Amino acid sequence: MLKENDVKADVEKQGLLAKKASKKLGQLTTEQKNEALNIIADELETNYEKILESNKIDLEKGKEKGFEDAFMDRLALSKERIVNFADGLRQVAKLEDPTDKTISNWTLENGLNVEKVTVPLGVIGMIYEARPNVTVDATGLALKSGNSIILKGGSSAISSNSAIVDVIHSALEKTEIPVDAVQFIHSTNREATQALFTMNEYVDVLIPRGGGSLIKAVVNNATVPVLETGVGNCHLYIDKDADVKKALDIIVNAKTDRPAVCNAAETLIIHEKWLKENHKILNETLISRKINVHGDEKALEYFTDAVPAGEEDWANEYLDLAIAVKIVSNLDEALDHIEQYGTKHSEAIITENAETAKKFLDLVDASAVYHNASTRFTDGGALGFGAEIGISTQKLHARGPMGLPALTTVKFKMRGNGQIR
Amino acid sequence: MLKENDVKADVEKQGLLAKKASKKLGQLTTEQKNEALNIIADELETNYEKILESNKIDLEKGKEKGFEDAFMDRLALSKERIVNFADGLRQVAKLEDPTDKTISNWTLENGLNVEKVTVPLGVIGMIYEARPNVTVDATGLALKSGNSIILKGGSSAISSNSAIVDVIHSALEKTEIPVDAVQFIHSTNREATQALFTMNEYVDVLIPRGGGSLIKAVVNNATVPVLETGVGNCHLYIDKDADVKKALDIIVNAKTDRPAVCNAAETLIIHEKWLKENHKILNETLISRKINVHGDEKALEYFTDAVPAGEEDWANEYLDLAIAVKIVSNLDEALDHIEQYGTKHSEAIITENAETAKKFLDLVDASAVYHNASTRFTDGGALGFGAEIGISTQKLHARGPMGLPALTTVKFKMRGNGQIR
């Protein structure tokens, strides 16, 4: 019990320090913030060996625990990866500062001037899994937008993250940004996470980055407002009027380009009329690309190597070379399926029928809806946002790929000379 | 236990119906929505007697329970008040439709067109206390912005709200808006509220309207995203360089114009130098306006009729003709006090010193910060927003007075001709 309270008190102290630091950070100039990012970048490169040594500890523990290859790959650092982290920070330094932008400015009849201006959120709580790159990326985006950050990374990357934060802290000593603006929660205790979830006094927003269960845990347990990111159970609907080449190209791209990312396709919904005419070439394409089909009853008739799909297949992301296939006899069935199983991330229709396309784009409730294009474009980089905090799958504050502006809020500055109502 | 499950199932069914109705509602034209609002307005006027009869039941119960006069006043309806409700709806019909607005539109090098467009949130859950006007106002704003609404009013207004919703439902029969777009939770059971708090599948946002404890209950228990509104523990800081007339005018206006509203002032922070010179006239002014002073130790030396202020006074709204007074010897002390006790609603400085004013406007973390003006201007009507859903005291999605655009989100519509990455 004592230990639990200690952990909570420690995290709360970090919250207070982060909040205090955010006041100073929020007043720095763009140049001061950019200079700091460049200094952190340099120090990461200079100290890459220290970071790699700490990374080794995590990797050894991971091996002992028998983690999967994909997991180990995300965890593993190299000199090249660290140089990439540093370059990422230098890119963020080059982006436009999202704060202190006047959104609107008007004067009431009584002479009171109203300026609506962007300001930093204050303190961002970042909760993520075993990707040490998030430690650097999130810190860069937070500092550039004038926010303090509290980092809570996965326990399997604790040594790597700790080493990275040590470098960031010593770099910050050489800058105008207070060292306290970057807080790292060392405890891997559940109580530490719970404290962060409910620290409304000091934390302005929580951003979970990771799998569905992590995100769900944050949404269900946090009283601090949450920016939901990431889970993409994306569908491609191949309409009866779909162009065959476009359909095949998009299926292959959306499924195989990077199967493990959130904007990859997970379910094909196919109009039966189209399938009757094109099942051979589709089947060949899927087989040649080693895509495993999990089909509904009708799909099993067309796809010779398919296995039966169940609730699990419709509801979850494969994040792998597998796809669920559902056959429908009209658009409404497709819309109903997407409504039931979609995660409001990215949904696409392939059709040459403009009216059907319009109906799909209007009626599907998702951050991004596509007509005749791959869902893979739901990405801050692809859309030209410069850097991405994540892809919001919620409706409040920010939806879809989030750039730096998502880390700001607004403030009304009212300037008068004695106005009363 | 059986009863609890029944209540939960009923509310979930209402959620599903509201969600389904929102699909149709979201596709209606502005004209169809406006026509519906005008028809509801007419029907409210036509059926005012029915509503007043039901209101009588609530008023009698309220009398039996010995509710305060202010509470009874908010609960009481009259023909005139119902006509005002109807006129409010007609005003909302005249406002610009916030949906289907293109925020940006650009084409990637590969030819993929990206349109960022505003769309309704979907389903709004409104949780409020015993003000039957919220039933009408919130319904009007929700429908105009293309959203379904689930209403959960206070139990002491249950008959009035129920009668109003009956009229709205029969009015909707004559319109293109599905009747199911307006759901009213009849159960006053806690389980009904709890079900609404966690119905993430069907409800897109919860908006609590009411006192601090209601809002806290929603924030602490909801997994559905919340738009926090309302609690305003607002401060006026009278700087050493404050103009006496401006200070007195603003103090009187911010405290006495409407003491029970959230943008009224609750604490005066006064620079000791200013107070030494002006305590006589300030004291006279406060006494003449029947404003009771709760002062800190130093304030008690200056304000002859003051009572000592404690933690309760600093932390809470009086919503009455009382004000807490704290004496400081510099701006930083004032900023620290506001940081500790402010609710991020509206904060004002009175000073002729431009540098001090700038520091205050930059450093105070609130939705609205004022220089030489009354905090009473934090109001959608006063700022020209036309109608107000509430005043957001949180930082995500919307901050400060919220007009119709706060009830929308965005969607990226991507139109291609086979683009892949």
TrEMBL record, chains A, B:
Reaction equations catalysed: L-glutamate 5-semialdehyde + phosphate + NADP(+) = L-glutamyl 5-phosphate + NADPH + H(+)
Aldehyde dehydrogenase domain segment(s): 8-291
Pfam families: Aldedh (PF00171)
Compartments where found: Cytoplasm
Listed PROSITE patterns: PROA
Enzyme Commission number: 1.2.1.41
The keyword Oxidoreductase belongs to this UniProt entry's keyword annotation: yes
Gene Ontology biological process terms, A to Z: L-proline biosynthetic process
CDD domains on file: ALDH_F18-19_ProA-GPR
Keywords assigned by UniProt, alphabetized: Amino-acid biosynthesis, Cytoplasm, NADP, Oxidoreductase, Proline biosynthesis
Pathway(s) annotated for this protein in UniProt: Amino-acid biosynthesis; L-proline biosynthesis; L-glutamate 5-semialdehyde from L-glutamate: step 2/2
EC top class named in words: oxidoreductase
Classification via Gene3D superfamilies: Aldehyde Dehydrogenase, Chain A, domain 1, Aldehyde Dehydrogenase, Chain A, domain 2
A GO molecular function held by the record: NADP binding
GO CC aspect terms: cytoplasm
InterPro entries per UniProt: Ald_DH/histidinol_DH (IPR016161), Ald_DH_C (IPR016163), Ald_DH_N (IPR016162), Aldehyde_DH_dom (IPR015590), G-glutamylP_reductase_CS (IPR020593), Glu-5-SA_DH (IPR012134), GPR_dom (IPR000965)
Signal peptide as annotated in the record: none
Similarity comment: Belongs to the gamma-glutamyl phosphate reductase family.
Functional note: Catalyzes the NADPH-dependent reduction of L-glutamate 5-phosphate into L-glutamate 5-semialdehyde and phosphate. The product spontaneously undergoes cyclization to form 1-pyrroline-5-carboxylate.
Record-given protein name: Gamma-glutamyl phosphate reductase
Organism: Falsibacillus albus
Lineage of producing organism: Bacteria, Bacillati, Bacillota, Bacilli, Bacillales
Originating gene: proA
